[in-house]
Amino acid sequence: MFVVDADKKTITLNRGDTGEVTITVSGYTYQADDRALFTIKDSSGSVVKQTVYEMTDNAFTVEFANADTDYLSPGIYYWDVRYIVNPQYDAQGNIVDGDGVGTPGSPFQIIILSTVGQV
To answer: Under CATH, what is the fold of the domain 2-113?
Structure first.
């Protein structure tokens, strides 16, 4: 099961399931080198998944593979997106800074349910 409640911005899925959600940005036209940083954190604020995306037509698609959630315990996690303008990278290619970093809205819930059947 993979369900997105667009009104509440909540994602619900069974641990280890696959799915995708497209996030569209409004209010700013992103340039070719700008990036979106999608992060999932546990209830303590520790990052459990973080992925950098390039945007096309002010949107990007977050794809969930089995390995992205099959190790997580069932429960409530939180996701957010940070938009990074003119990102700056370290020697390993990780974004470490940017001229402008925007985080629209509050963190939203991602609910991980128990695995159903064999994975």
So the answer is: Immunoglobulin-like (2.60.40)
